[in-house]
Amino acid sequence: MKVAEAVLSPTRVELPAGIERPYEVYVNGVAQVEGRDFRVRGRSLLFDRELRQEGKLGFWRWASLLIGAAGTYRQNDLVDIVYETAGRRTVASGLPLQPGP
Q1: Are 25 and 81 in contact (CB under 8 A)?
Q2: DSSP bridge partners of 31
Q3: Distance (Å, whole) CA 84 – CA 96
Q4: Of 3, 9, 10, 25, which residue is 20 to 30 A from 52 by alpha carbon distance?
Q5: Do strands 79-85 and 88-92 pair parallel, antiparallel, or not at all (unpaired)?
């Protein structure tokens, strides 16, 4: 019996300008641990798993939601970075996801 291997589609997130260590990384509100959940390469965060952002709704999808014919259950991952600037905690939320690495 042959067991299929999972195909990993890594995801890359670029750190916005001005964000320096230390910072905290969250995916969908869950704290991520460097080395376990992601790696840092230069100004990029590399996730070994595929993260997705739902695109803009087209007319028919929007219309079906409006009349209650369909719900929206697509994967929509949100990456947030909490960092300190000028002594204040700041959040960069909903950073763009890119295919990695």
Answers
A1: yes
A2: 26
A3: 20
A4: 3
A5: antiparallel
Q: What is the CA radius of gyration of the chain?
A: 17
Note down pLDDT in tens along the chain; length 101 residues: 454 444 568 999 999 999 999 999 999 999 999 999 999 999 999 999 999 876 556 666 666 666 666 665 667 899 999 999 999 999 999 999 998 76
C-beta separation of 96 from 54 below 8 A: no
Q: What domains appear along the chain, each with residue ranges and CATH number? A: 11-99 (2.60.40)
In whole angstroms, give the CA distance from residue 7 to residue 15: 26
Q: Are 46 and 14 in contact (CB under 8 A)?
A: no
Task: Say if residue 10 is preceded by a cis peptide, omega within 30 of 0.
Answer: no
The answer to whether the Cα torsion of 5, 28, 21, 42 is positive or negative is: positive
Secondary structure (3-state) at 75: coil
